[in-house]
Amino acid sequence: MYDVSADGATLRVKGDMDTAVRQLDLTPDGSQVLTSWGDPDYGYGLGAYSTTDLTEQVGYPIDAYPNAVRVAPDGSIAGGSSSWYEPDVHIHRTGDPTPTREYDFPNTGNSSGADTLVDGALAWAPDTSRVFAVSVNTYGTYTLRALTDPTKELPTLKVSAPTKWERAKKLTVTGKLTSKTPLAAGTSLKVTRTDIESSNGKALAAVKTKADGSFSFTDTPSAGGKVTYKVSYAGDATHAPASGSDAVEVSRKATSLSLNNNGKLYSYGKDVTFTAHLGATYKSRTVAIYADPFGTDKPKKLLKTAKVNSKGNVSAIVDMTRDTTVTAVFAGDARSASKTVKSTAYAHAKISTTVSKHYKTGKIGSTTYYYFRKNTDPVFTTTMNYYAGRKQRFQLQVYYQGSWYDSGSQYFALATNGKSAVRLEAAGESGIRARMRSSYINSSSGDTVNSTTHGAWKYFTFTN
Q1: Fewer CB in 10 Å around end: N or C, the chain?
Q2: Cα separation, 303 vs 295, whole angstroms
Q3: Strands 339-347 and 265-266
């Protein structure tokens, strides 16, 4: 320590500090030197030493591991610590071991611990309105952080409202404003109510605190649904602003909403009208209708948002190429509860089969047959609406003594164009009559986006 009050510099005293010290600073009156590590009586803390003889004095406890200290012109002390899981910057008033305010850095790296303070990387703004700090994350990225209102205590403002309440009935909201240094009784707090009719918030009468910081006020909510009460403290010269809120679910009248066509099965591609019917409501008459086709490749889609007609109905058309869940949604209003209803309708797959390699067609009885030479392999090409991984089931039956008998079935994958060609081995003899059909079998065909559908039978016979 040097005395520089006169010409030159006169050595006053010298001594050793702990090897963990990363930064030193003097108090404005020159009576103490503070170190970023010291005062073992507190475990981890800022050391304080007399500038006259370096005798140890009462320091300031902070979290592990202390690595910075800076003193403001007004004597306020900023201490830093390299702390993954605790606050990183600690503000003390002169002689007060309890922090006035603490700041915790976020985690911008790739570990469980947050960013940490760089050794000695603290500085005060000349007017003490901010403390500047440099942090580093696990990627080695450095960030300059401006910490506002460091000399002001950060009060806690708690608000408590009932969980549920009946609309148009008076309720009571309570709360408490607390701080390290208690605020005076009569401190004014701003109150705002936000609900479905006042989305930007409506100011209510201000409320004042009692001696212990507690407060209460009453209100009669006119709107149902979620009602939020926010209470705000503006702050003063030694306290930062603070706010708190709580929400109450206010009752609304149940709403009647229905949707037709649930459980119905339609042919592929049919345009189906889904109609939602809305019962009596307070103000809103708007209903939204969504369609969610089965499968992971097509998202839920809004079909229509509109006011219902004079009969309470609104409709939307769905092209039924897949099983589809249709949803009607009434968002609710100030006195009518929201309501959502669903209707799941089902769609057949689209299946067609063409026959090739035959030499003619003709009728046996009233049924049309494809005629093949006994040594010709028939080819059956099935076209089906495509879905990833889909297969068609090829089923074969043989006619014998007046009845049809299963001769087996097998699944064949569809190409991306929805086609599947199957070559059937020639009979090798004449007179055999057979038939085949292609089917989509829900789940067994590789997916569940359509309802089980059987294609038409194709009849064929072999001749010489």
Answers
A1: C
A2: 18
A3: parallel
Position 40 scores a pLDDT of: 62
Sheet holding 313-320: strands in order across? Answer: 257-259, 270-278, 313-320
Tokens of 114: 């947050």
Q: What is the pTM of this model?
A: 0.76
Cα separation of 390 and 388, whole Å?
6
φ/ψ of 295, rounded to 5, equals 110, 160
Q: Which two tokens stand for residue 419?
A: 């086609």
Beta-sheet pairing, 188-195 with 225-233: antiparallel
pLDDT of residue 260: 98
Q: Which residue has the tokens 């209460």?
A: 216
Residue 78 pairs in a beta bridge with 70, 91
pLDDT in tens, 257-285: 999 999 999 999 999 999 999 999 999 99
Summarize pLDDT for 273-326 with one digit per residue, the tens: 999 999 999 999 999 999 999 999 999 999 999 999 999 999 999 999 999 999
In one letter, which amino acid is 220? T
* CB neighbour list of residue 19: distance below 8 Å, 6 or more residues apart: none
Question: Residue 433: which residues within 8 A CB-CB, separation 6 or more?
Answer: 364, 369, 398, 399, 459, 460, 461
Q: Is the dihedral of CA 86, 116, 156, 62 positive or negative?
A: positive
Tens-digit pLDDT profile for residues 213-264: 999 999 999 999 999 999 999 999 999 999 999 999 999 999 999 999 999 9
Q: How far is CA 11 from CA 1, 2, 6, 51, 377, in A?
A: 6, 4, 12, 11, 112
CA torsion angle for 189, 237, 184, 154 (degrees, to 10)?
A: 70
Nearest to 374 by CA among 435, 424, 457, 432: 432
List residues bridging with 340 in a β-sheet.
329
**How large is the average pLDDT for residues 171-200?**
97
Round to whole Å and give the CA distance between 397 and 459.
Answer: 10
Instruction: Judge whether residue 18 has pLDDT over 90.
Output: no
Q: What DSSP state is assigned to residue 354?
A: E
Residues forming beta bridges with residue 336, ordered by sequence position: 253
Distance CA 338, CA 336 (A): 7
443 CB burial (10 A radius; 0-12, 13-18, 19+): exposed
Residue 205 one-letter amino acid: A
DSSP string computed for 216-272: EEEE---S-EEEEEEEEE---SSB--EEEEEEEEE--B---EEES-TT-EE-TTEEE
